[in-house]
Amino acid sequence: MSPDLDDEFRWLEALSSTEVTAWVRARNAETRDALADDPSFGALSAELRQVLDAADRVPFVHWDGTYLYNLWKDEGHPRGLWRRTTIDEYRRAEPNWEVLLDVDALAAAEGEPWTWQGAIAQRPGHRRCLIRLARGGSDASVVREFDLTDRAFVPDGFTLPEAKSDVGWIDADHIYVGTDFGPGSLTASGYPRIVKRWRRGTPLAEATVVHQGRDDDVSVYAVHDPTPGFVRDFLGRRLDFFRREEFLRTVDGELVRIDVPEDAETDVHREWLLIALRSDWAIGDRTYAAGTVLVTRLDRFLAGERDLTVVFAPGPESAPGRHAWTRGHLILSSLVDVRSRTEVLTPGPDGWRRTPLLETVGPEEERHVVIVDTNPEHSDEYLLASTGFLTPTALHHGTVGGPAETLKRDPAFFDPAGMAVRQLHARSADGTRVPYFLVSPPGEPTGPTLLTGYGGFEMAWTPSYSGIIGRGWLARGGSYVVANIRGGGEYGPRWHRAALRENRLRAYEDFAAVATDLVDRGITIPARLGIEGGSNGGLLMGVMLTRFPELFGAVVARVPLFDMRRYHLLLAGASWMAEYGDPDDEADWAFLREYSPYHNVRPGREYPPVLLVTSSRDDRVHPGHARKMAARMRGYGYDVSYYENIEGGHGAAADNAQLAFKWALMLRFLWRRLTDAPH
């Protein structure tokens, strides 16, 4: 029988129906009764809420023009205050913030559960912006024009109804817009297939098409660069999650291809073109390896010259990280055996000069530095964050060539005295050395161990400070483990490709190897080892549950993918086929079928207890994945708990109260299942 005809729980894919709503409410009530209906849960949730709402936590910012912008959430403003200040004010212990928009007040006035999705400022000038607001935290949002001087929405300004829109300024009276224009205007992934140029004061229906893609593309886009002396427009098609084609659009409308490999990432700053390679690139008699980062002059490249400068070359244990331009420099981060390095590169007559940036910010064994923002339109300033498992996150400011200062630092949300961070390595089934970080309490570990990971989309899982994990797990005697499995970006594109599509099982074997190594080292035992992951990490949890159940004592999966037969038909799922494969292709379904959790859960097996957490408003990973898995496991009589937040989007929480409740639910579930003791 085909997998589609054998899906007795397909009805749970309905996003809203009386029957589905009743089912969700019944499951939520069962989970609340089992985990949340006593004073100790309330105390834990309140403690985590204190972490999230702490008044002295770092108010992270980004630059737009001469201002630093921040969205601030706390108990009094659960949806957030959008505000701004200057760098001089920000240095003060209590900056003077100019509040631009109170999202809670707006939600109350309009009777809508608005959540903040960001703002796009017009450049130059920064007088107007396009604000995104989403109902309940979904990816789809409404767009409204906002005046930053008047601190008010612009009457008769640019507005768009709820959709997964892509918008950007051209000038004060024109924007690029890709949105749901009606039938045929979206790709199979649910993103814009057509992008138009829209003039102020005219109906959207009269906007002029400037670029369009195909139904099986992920999306199309248009970007205007207003940098004085370098004004230009770029158009592109995202062919799949990793490949795209991009063009420079000349003043007479001609499209000039930026002729780089389709899977390369590009970035343009003033006269420079940066190219980050995901695959080997042969040019003439030279081949640049995947993971290499190159820089060249854009005009010469478009003219056919290939004078490329290597600014990062990958090694056996190194990988490129993020980059950011200042006005005259390039800041480049990288990973060496999952430890960060940050450098600044400066162009000159003799090539690019390389110097370290912000080297002394914490213990080497757990420090990680993240590029927060730069202000390339105006200066060579930068903002960097340093963080670690036991080191509260700090925000640093500097100007290239000068000293850095620490502007803000998170409070210590737990006492790390005696705790240790170690980087260890396991051997996977094929002999590959897989790194992982272990954070453990003083002495011999006696509490349960929580293992997490992701292993997908070339995303690296690096050390970071979490008050939630620290206060809710480590401070109570638990150990915490982060596995750097294949499929991620810890060692660059090769680490990612090693677990791509038909090789996906390698990622799961890596995670199982880490679990086995923890037991072999005497750190824990299977009955006291819990695992947790979200999204692609939720798929990882589902595979661990169905393929390696004997290794674990409890499993938590957040907003997970479980049905790999239909994932490409649900919401944004089609955009991930380059990562997982095409279930409609018989050859691809053959390897997807091997690990699809929904198709591999069986009756009569011994599975550890499971908690599934999702959101009704997640319009990225369909809640039907978790619903159907819970229903099937319930039908088989397994210990499965289920909680679906009505709001929250892909994060499964729309505000700090919901986030604290979600984490309290997960941590309490894990602690009770792994210790049979109150948390």
UniProtKB/TrEMBL annotation:
Q: Which domain of life is it from?
A: Bacteria
Q: Which organism is it from?
A: Plantactinospora mayteni
Question: What sequence ranges are listed for the domain Peptidase S9 prolyl oligopeptidase catalytic?
Answer: 474-674
Residue ranges of every copy of the Peptidase S9A N-terminal domain listed in the record: 6-223
**Is rRNA-binding included in the keywords of this UniProt record?**
no
| Keywords, in A-Z order | Hydrolase, Protease, Serine protease
Question: What is the designated name of this protein?
Answer: Prolyl oligopeptidase
